[in-house]
Amino acid sequence: MVKTEIEKKGCRTRWLWVVVALVAVFVAMAMSSRTSPRIALFGAIDRACQCSRGTSKYSGMVEDCCCDYETVDRLNEEVLHPSLQELVKTPFFRYFKAKLWCDCPFWPDDGMCRLRDCSVCECPENEFPELFKKPHRLSMNDLVCQEGKPQAAVDRTLDSKAFRGWTEIDNPWTNDDETDNDEMTYVNLQLNPERYTGYTGPSARRIWDAVYSENCPKYPSQELCQEEKILYKLISGLHSSISIHIAADYLLDEATNLWGQNLTLLYDRVLKYPDRVRNLYFTFLFVLRAVTKATDYLEQAEYDTGNPNEDLKTQSLIKQLLYNPKLQAACPIPFDEANLWKGQSGPELKQKIQQQFRNISALMDCVGCEKCRLWGKLQVLGLGTALKILFSVDGQENSSQALQLQRNEVIALMNLLNRLSESVKFVHEVGPTAERIMEGHVSAHTTLISSWKKMWSYVSET
Question: Which one, of 430, 413, 92, lies nearest residue 284 by Cα?
Answer without folding.
Answer: 413
